[in-house]
Amino acid sequence: MKPAILINRYATAGWLSGPSAKQIMDEHGGAGPGFDMVRIALSLLVILLHSFHTAYGIPAAEYLATGWSHPIWAATLPIFFGLSGFLVSGSALRSRSLRVFLTFRALRIFPALAVEISLSALILGPLLTTVPLGEYFGDPRFLRYFGNIIGWIHFELPGVFEQNPNPGIVNRSLWTLHPELLSYVLMAGLMTVGWVYSRWKVTLFWIFATVVLAGYNLMTAKLELRGIYSGGILIYYFLTGIVAYHWRDAIVINWRLFVAALILSYVLMRLPQTTFIVLPLTNVYIMVYLGMVRFPHVKFLQSGDYSYGLYLYAFPIQQAIVQFFPGFRSWWMVFILAVLATFCVAWVSWHAIEKPTLKLKRWMQNVPKPIPSTTEPVDEPASAQASEAFRA
């Protein structure tokens, strides 16, 4: 008997009863009905955290790393990466083409990123720099800043935000580009060797990675949670999201399990991080559960995929608010103003840059048809394939 069938039979009775994630996705055209709202919520949590950093500076906001809310902030990016692994897996398994996968990833990531980097360096920087423009454009930091477009991360522009509580940082969010690009490299590698098309092979690879990371952490403690997770842990969550997608037919959506996962995740994140062997499972379950929830329809939020724009543009906007309006240097004022301003920018970015660019996916030629697989239960309608491939 298949494990998914066994689990679902057990889950049909008692307090564990509930539909599987795959069943809910199939009922909604192959996509999780709540994932768009989850991405928006995670982006807003990042903006909220950065409101403390920009208003008070990193040292003054260190209490967040020891307070009761620390697990919430610490879990945000890992869950983001787990969600990315889950959604990107659907796109990769449908296309079964490395060329198509990498092209789709490039179309999703780089156009808006290139615009944000260019706007920061060519408009925001010259307007706010405290050095003469000739010195600004002649400074090596100006040219190096464009390296962010290809994942060569730099945070500084000459003379920009140097007097802010979080001095000299134009866009702190850019640091996640490196683990994000490496996550796509990981997916490309799994596609090349064919493991990503087999739930058992990718699951065994995840188990191997878990054992290696756990052993490494026990010996070195370098994966302990210190403020936020390292890039390596984010990539590991991306892999966990891939595995979760393969087992979505065995993931029971039940509110009691969701509450238990919330409590267990919170407790584990207050303990030394040798517990991260279990923690990714509970955090990713939280992500999958919320992705299966049908949230109330909010026309504006569901008129586009604004999560990437919110994440990408918010930090420089927050830094500019702090510089221009020193009287508003409280976290909640920075948060409110930044959300309002960033939603406007994200709306323009989606409709003027991201959405038109993503339409180029339709021009991909010679896309190979999906190869039947006995290990990957993917039977999604064509409409779901088109919709999910467009947004993923």
The largest pleated sheet is described as: none
Q: In whole angstroms, how far apart are the ends?
A: 33 Å
Number of domains: 1
Secondary-structure-based class equals: mainly alpha
Order of helices and strands: HHHHHHHHHHHHHHH
Low-confidence stretches: 365-390
Number of helices: 15
Shape: globular
Instruction: Kindly report the average pLDDT value.
Output: 86
Measured as a percent range, the helix fraction is: 55-70%
Radius of gyration: 21 Å
Find the count of extended strands (DSSP E, 2+ residues).
0
Which percent band covers the strand fraction?
under 5%
Describe the protein in words.
By secondary structure, this protein is an all-alpha fold. The chain has one domain. The chain is 62% helix and 0% strand. It is built from 15 helices and no strands. It has helices spanning 3-11, 21-27, 35-56, 70-95, 98-128, 133-138, 140-145, 177-193, 199-220, 231-246, 255-268, 279-291, 307-324, 331-358, 382-391. The radius of gyration is 21 Å and the shape is globular. The relative contact order is 0.18. Residues 365-390 have low confidence and may be disordered.
